[in-house]
Each structure stands twice: as structure tokens, then as C-alpha cells.
Amino acid sequence: MSTTSRRRRRHRWSLQARLITAVVSFVSVILITVGLGTGTVLESILRENLDAKVTGVQDSIALDYNHRADQILEASPRPERGTLLVVNNLAGPTAAYVDAEGGVRTLDTRNIQISAQDGNDWADATVAGLGDYRLRIGPYSSIFGLPTSEVTSVSARIVTTVALLTTGGLLVLAAVIALLIRSALAPLRSVASTASRVAAQPLAEGAVTITERVPDEDTDTHTEVGQVGHALNTLLDHVETSLAARQRNEERMRAFVADASHELRTPLASIRGYSELSLRGIRHAEASGNTAAGVVADTTRESLERIQAQSLRMTALVEDLLLLARLDEGTELVYSAVDLTRLAVEAVSDARVAGTDHEWVLEVPDEPVIVAGDAGRLHQVAANLLANARVHTPAGTRVTTTVASEDGDAVLRIHDDGPGIDPTVVGDLFERFSRADSSRARQTGGTGLGLSIVKAIVEGHGGRIAVASEPGSTTFEVRMPARPDSPAQ
Ligand SMILES: Nc1ncnc2c1ncn2[C@@H]1O[C@H](COP(=O)(O)OP(=O)(O)OP(=O)(O)O)[C@@H](O)[C@H]1O
Ligand SMILES: [Mg+2]
Question: Start and end of every Histidine kinase domain (predicted)?
């Protein structure tokens, strides 16, 4: 996967996350707008109320030219708590206010800081030690005021309440959407899990039946998600039918190869027999000095010898094909307890006789290494691998055969220090009719079925075969469960 697509994938959100984010942000924009609008309107209403109260304060206080602000306030009937009065008369500029208990207190006029003034009548101010005030300017620079603290605290309460309700509402909304989506998408999850369970099945090999289906309740074609489930089930039906057809074809093919090879054995035996017989006749005539037959013999004998050699090769090929077809059917192996150590000793002795130019080394443990298997076929595995090490390497190559018990596996390793196998074909080595070097293979008369037979036998025993090859070192390793619980029949 490239870095860009990985980055893109990381940013892709689930449908649930996207829907929740979209709905919650949309609704929160609406709620915040409504909250802000309501707050602004309420605050302006509260300010208007305050202004009306300040006007009321002005109306209720009777000014005179001789008294100080505090004296005037004392004389007023029931002045509002917080009321601020500044007068500028014969007594000089004086200021006073009504405290929280209703008592009148004097104030230095320098404590009043006007911060904003609208028109000539109204102003906002800060009074040191008392807070923010709304002021009305009356005749002769007199000032009447009330604190804005009530307006501020009411607005703050409204803002807090709206914010809390909005947040709570959004959380509930997100939870409800999540639940809705979860239940709406549940069938999709069941579709996905069905699909991945099917994908985990080994569809490529053998007889496969796909039993997995999306449950009926998730395939309601009235919903979009149900249609997906329904479509997947239809697809799985089709896949199952095609797999069954493929399996039938394969079995028919195998049966055909097995039958054909079987049928070819008899005519091949005849060809071999007759060429043998004719050759024997010619040799006999030659030996008895029949000159006429001797003239015929030069060309005919050569042809007959070729026929015999080729029919022998073909017999071997047909036997290999038959064996492979039967191994594929799984009907070939006959199980018993087989000692790999003994088997290796015998196979290497045979190889030593056949390949006198090679050096044969055997490394086996003292105790037997027992596997449950088909003795004849396992011998064929060792013989094929040893024959390869003999045929495909030059004279003088050292071939080491090792038998060992490793991690509960019985291991047979055949190593040679020959030229190695071309790395480009190592991957296909166990395929049928694969030959790394066709010219050499033809020279050595191999068919290219040897290793595929070895692999089929080993896998028929529940084992594995691996090859590691480089110039100067080629190792074939066969690993089989030492005591398989239930040998494949
Ligand atoms: N030990 C080895 N060293 C080098 N090459 C090898 C060795 N074993 C196998 N090969 C290569 O792998 C090819 C496939 O081997 P395989 O046994 O399947 O076929 P074959 O030996 O050519 O024919 P057959 O075994 O059917 O008579 C061989 O042709 C050979 O090129
Ligand atoms: Mg071979």
C-alpha cells in the first residue's frame, strides 16, 4: 500500500462517526445561534428595565440647592438599594449612595469613572468599590444611578442555563443517533462478518461447501442494508454452485487421467514385450551366423532398441501419472508405523550403488524416528530426492542425508554441495513437469514429475516439503508430524 492511500485511509471516518459529527455540529450551530439571539434580546430588555428604574429614581428624588447628596438621599422616601446620587450645588460637588442595608453613605466624586456616554442623558460608569453603574444625567450636572449587577447576573444565569441545556441536549442527541445508526447498521455488520468468514475459507482447494449465509432477518429487501445482505447471499449461492462444478470437473479430470494411464499400461507392456522379443530374435540370428538377418539387424536393431528405451520411459511416465492421480484422489496411501531412520539407511545404500561417483553421507540418530505413513511411498520420497541429488549434480558431489526429530516433527533432510537450482524456477519446482534446466533434464531422461510426486506424498501424510538452494548448497527438507493424531486416509 502506498503512503498516500494509507494516509487517505486513516482520515476516512466510519459512517456512524460522520453522521454524528454532521448532525451534532449542525444542531449545535442552530442551538448556539438561538441561545445567543435570546440572550441578546433578554439583555436589552433587562437594560431597558434598568433605564426605566433609573428614571424612576430620578423622579422620586427631590433636588434642592442647599444640601449635600447624602442629605438629599436621607430625605427621600424609601430610596432603592444601590441608588447613587451626585449633586453639584451650593454645598459643592457631593456624591452619596444607599448601601445594601438601606443606609446612606457618602462617596468621593472622583471614584466615579464614566466609561461610555450615549447622548447627553445616559452613561455607563464604574464606581470604585461598588462596581458598574447605569447613570442618568439630570439638571445642573446632577447624576442618578443604579448598579448593573442585577442585569449582569441575570444574563450570566441565562447564558449558563442555555449553555448547560445545549450541551446536555447535544450529548443526548449524539447518543440517540449513535443508537439509531448502530441498530440500523447491525445487518451490515452481519453481512461484513459473513463475508469475512467466507473469505477465510480455503476456497481455492478441494471440495468446499460454503455454509455461511447472512441470517434471514438481515436480508429484508425493503431496506438498503438488507439488499446488500440479500445480494451477498445470492452471490454466495452462485459461488457455491461454481465451486461444486469446478470440483466435479476436477474429479472427472483426475478420474480420466487415472483411467487413461491405467489403460495405457497394457499396450505399453505389449510394445515393450514385442521389441524385446524382436531384439532377442535378431541377436540370436547374429549369434548363429545368419548373415541375411545380420544385414537387417544394423538399422532394425537400432530402431528396436530406441523403441524399447522409449517405451520404458513412457511406462515410467504413465506409472508416475497414475500415482499422482491416485494421490490426488487420496486413495493411494496405506498406513503403518514407519521408521524413517531405517528407511534412510536403505535409500542411501541404494543411492550409493547407483551413484558410485558421488560421496554419500548419512547422519541418523541412534533411536528410531517413527511416523505413521505408507512405507513404500515414503521410500519413494527419499529415493526421488536422492536420485535428483545424483542426477542433477556433477560427479564428486557430496550428498548428506539427515534424519532427526525436531519439535515433534520427523525431519528428513537431503543436502548436496552441487551447483544449486536456478533461483527463478525454485518457486515452481514442485509443479508438475517442471524442470529447471530442460536440456540437462532431457539428457538425464527425467520427466519433471519426481518432485511433484514427492510433494503429493508428503502432503498426503500431513507433512511439508521445503527447498533452499544456492550455488554449492541445496537442501530439501521433509517435515512430517511424528505421531499424527488422525492420519489422512
Ligand atoms: N539436488 C538438485 N540439484 C540441482 N537441481 C535439482 C536438484 N533437484 C532437482 N533439481 C532440478 O529440479 C528439476 C525438477 O526435479 P524433478 O525431480 O521434479 O524432475 P526430474 O528429476 O527432472 O525428472 P523425474 O524426477 O521425473 O525423473 C530437475 O529437472 C532439476 O533441474
Ligand atoms: Mg527427479
Answer: 259-484
Ligand 1 pocket test target in 390, 392, 434 with most atoms within 8 Å of CB: 392
Q: Which atom of ligand 1 is nearest to the CA of 452?
A: 18
Q: Tens digits of per-residue pLDDT, 346-358?
A: 999 999 999 899 9
What does the pLDDT look like over 263-281, one tens digit per residue?
999 999 999 999 999 888 8
Q: Is 435 in the pocket of ligand 1 (CB under 6 A)?
A: yes
**Sequence-separated (6 or more) residues with CB below 8 Å from residue 219:** 187, 226, 229, 230, 233
- Determine whether the shortest distance from the Cβ of 441 to ligand 1 is under 6 A: yes
**Of all helices (H) and strands (E), which one includes residue 171?**
helix 149-199
Contact 77, 62 (CB under 8 A): no
Domain residue ranges in the chain? 15-157, 201-332, 333-481
How many other C-beta atoms can be found within 10 angstroms of the C-beta atom of residue 187? Answer: 21
Return the biggest CA–CA distance within the chain.
174
In this prediction, residue 440 carries a pLDDT of 45
Q: Is 333-481 assigned to CATH 1.20.1070.10?
A: no
Residue whose Cα lies nearest atom 1 of ligand 1: it is 389
C-beta separation of 451 from 430 below 8 A: yes
CA distance linking residue 365 with residue 44, whole number of Å: 100
